[in-house]
Structures are given as C-alpha cells and as structure tokens.
Amino acid sequence: MPDPIREIVEGMRRLLPSERPACEYDIPEQFLKAGDQPYLPLDALVERNRHWYVLVLRMLLGFRDDYRRIPVNPVGTAGESATPSWRNCDLPVLDALSLYGFLCLNRPGRYLEIGAGESTRFARRAVDDHRLATDIISISSFMFPSGWFAERARTDPDDLIGPTVFSDLEEGDVVRVATYHTSGIRGYSEMVQYVLPNIRPGVYVQLQDLFVPSDISPDRSGGSYADQLLVAEMIHSGEMDIILPCNRVARDAELNTVLSPVTEDLRLDEGEMQGRSLWVRTR
Asked: DSSP code of 269?
C-alpha cells in the first residue's frame, strides 16, 4: 500500500536530535490557567517543520483538477444529496480538501470515520474519482438516508471504542475523528487514552476541532482545553507525528498562499480556506 508522505515524516524526525522536540517542557502557570496561548513545545516544533507542511500542501495540490470538479455550493436538499460541496455547514474547506487528498495519496484499504456527514461525501467522491479499493466505514450517531449509498453505518455505542473496530487498520489507512457530534464518546480524551495508543504505526488520523499547537480555536469553540492538552502530550512524547496542522495553515499567510491556486479555481472569498483539524500519523 503506498504511503508517499512517509519520507516527509522521516525527514521531520531527522531534523530533531531525539524523538522529542528540541525545546524545554516549561509552560508558564498563567498559560495553564488562561488556556489561550500556543502549546509552547509544539508551537516550536510546528514552526520548525513548516517547510515540510509546504511539501504536503503541494502534494495535495496535485488533485487540483479534482477539486475544481466538486461544486462550490450544495447540490439538492441538504442531507439527501451524495454530492459534496465546498460551502457546507459541516466541514471547512481545508479539512475537506486534505481529507480528499490524503485518501487519494494513500489509497488506503480502509477509511474509518467516527462522526459522519459531509466528510462521508468527500470520502466517497475520492473513492469514486480515483477508483480506490477503499472500504468506507462510518460510525455515526445517526443512520444515512435510505438508498444514499451502500456504506456500513454503525450506531452501536459499544463499537465506538471497542478494539475490534480498529484492530484491522494498517499502515496508510485513514481515520477521521469528529467526536463532538457523535454519541458514545465523550470527547477526544477517550480516543487518545484508549484508541490511538493501540492503533498500528503509520495510520493517518484527522482529529476534527483540534487546534494544536494552539489549545483553543480562534472562536473558542470545539474541543475542551483538557482534550487539546492530552493530544498535545501524545505528540510531544513521540507517540504521533504532526502531518498537517490545518488550523495553523489557515491562519498562516505564507502557508495559506500555497493553496491560493485552489482558492482562485473555486472562486472562494477571502478567508474561506479555513481549517479546524489536525492531521497526525501514529508511530
């Protein structure tokens, strides 16, 4: 199974003198109380690896023609159409673009998502456009409309963090987690504590509404401070590699410029290339 980003990940690791970021683990007490500053060790790591994120973004630009064929505005009645759209109420543009791109790059055997909706539409579009032999597994708190498409929708909460759901994942497979809209999982805390450590190395995970290295979103929505910090600890301790910090890319003028061809193609308004997710790769 191809994994074209592995070389980039290994390159990021070679930049570091050890498995841990080369900076002091020293967070001021006022930061811990306020919870509105960057997670300092990871902020330094992300800044140091920004040229690698440029390479990843350029790889995603390889699917520019595919992005152009996806409608900007919704088609048909919301919740009933199988066609994704860039402007939707569920998934920001950069999160959708990166999900489509990573599926096409990795050509995974399995795509497992916890929390379904617009992400499922983009996943199905990627599979159809590139004839991927990818099994889409959606774990959701609701059932898809009858006849929408023939993916497996699982609603049993006992399945959500059961080891059997994740035991078949292999290197290059893709997992998406959007737990704040899914029953059965209280937050990222359970995913980080009980699931991610037991996933095999080399699996790509999109953590929605996670803003590491910042600990909160710009509009103070999304995951709790405790959830953000727990994921940050896993990354800092070397259990996961940051592949693409979408929120940082969206707010960084230099990184966002890399995606300007797509913004121009889709005729998006200024500031619409937003991201609310973090892409990591398990070790």
From this structure: P
